[in-house]
Amino acid sequence: MKIQANKAAAFVASPDPSMRAVLVYGPDRGLARERLDALTVAVAGDVNDPFRVTEMAAGALKDDPARLADEAAAQSLMGGRRVVRLMDAGDAVAGAVESVLSGAGDALVLVLAGELGPRSALRKVFEGAQAAAALPCYVDDGLALEQVVRQTLQPHGMSVGRDAMDWLLGHLGGDRLLTRAELDKLVTYKGEGGEISLAEVVACIGDTAALGMDDLALAVADGDDATAQRVLDRLLRSGTGPVQVLRGVSRHFLRLHVAAGAVAEGKSPDQAVSALKPPVMFKIRSRVVAQVDRWRGARLGQALDVLLEAEADCKGFGPSPDVVCARALLRLAQGARSGARAGRR
């Protein structure tokens, strides 16, 4: 079965005892790890319990595919239900999971995977079995990210001003664990209680993965494909998924689209950028103004279509997602340069 997004929190807090296995997967590795740990605690009480929790890498099944079923059938020496955690899994372990579901034992097998397309063999096993569940973990954005911010700050008696919240929504959300770490840093900086201001947020939130994403989006919109490729390589090496990258760049182009709409209504590019929420940081403001002037409304719509199509292709069975992502960004960077040449004529 597949767990819907609005039921994920309740499922993680109290998983159905009839579940033999749960697949936790998706582009947000931080959220996936957070949910994996929460499921472990819900069943075994402690992630680090050596008697009730066993963790193994998916690669260990290559030479011994029966090992997963053997671990699932083993009994705890101290009593209680065991948890077996299979890390960094892919479609190659689908058969091993099927053996668990048809075998003996009552351990809960938790499988952690990255992004899996709808035709993934591993997803199909979990989504099609009565005693298994697939739990997708997508990047926080919009209302979901705002809820994470409020839930994290509320126990400290803190509220967030609208401008500050808009800034946080524009600079967090790429990874749940990273988001929480940045918010914890903000709590320490602010101290308990009170409303967090925009100035405090800007002063505290540092060079996170979201800021690296900003560097990439700016380079693409500038037409600087060499810098874009270097930043993209760094993000991919650090574990940022191609879909997450494409969505980060899309957010920047959506902001350019909003500004371009204001220009079409009679505002100057400078005025249009000044009106954006969350506000554009001073050090990159001139670049964004130039990008609004370079990218016209129709071309921005085409750019967003390219990004959306690339995201869909990342979930298919064509070229690797890394290649699809790089090609799309290179195409946009080339488009930025052609737009600049057209503007000079």
Helix and strand topology:
Elements: H1 8-13, E1 21-25, H2 29-44, E2 53-57, H3 67-73, E3 83-89, H4 94-102, E4 108-113, H5 121-128, E5 132-136, H6 142-153, E6 158-160, H7 162-171, H8 176-190, E7 194-196, H9 198-204, H10 209-222, H11 225-237, H12 242-264, H13 269-274, H14 282-294, H15 297-314, H16 321-344
Helix pairs in contact: 3-4, 4-5, 6-8, 7-9, 10-11, 10-12, 10-16, 11-16, 12-14, 12-15, 12-16, 15-16
GO molecular function: DNA binding; DNA-directed DNA polymerase activity
Keywords: DNA replication, DNA-directed DNA polymerase, Nucleotidyltransferase, Transferase
Family: Belongs to the DNA polymerase HolA subunit family.
Mean pLDDT: 87
DSSP strand (E) fraction? 5-15%
State the distance separating the first and last CA atoms.
58 Å
The gross shape turns out to be globular
> If you compute it from the alpha carbons, what radius of gyration comes out, rounded to the nearest whole angstrom?
23 Å
Structural class call reads alpha/beta
CATH topology of the largest domain: Zinc Finger, Delta Prime, domain 3
Work out the oligomeric state of the chains in this entry: single chain
By CATH reckoning, the class of the largest domain would read Mainly Alpha
Major sheet details: 5 strands, parallel
How many beta-strand runs? 7
SSE topology string: HEHEHEHEHEHEHHEHHHHHHHH
> Per CATH, which architecture of the largest domain?
Up-down Bundle
- How are strands sequenced across the largest beta sheet? 2-3-4-1-5
The tally of helices reads 16
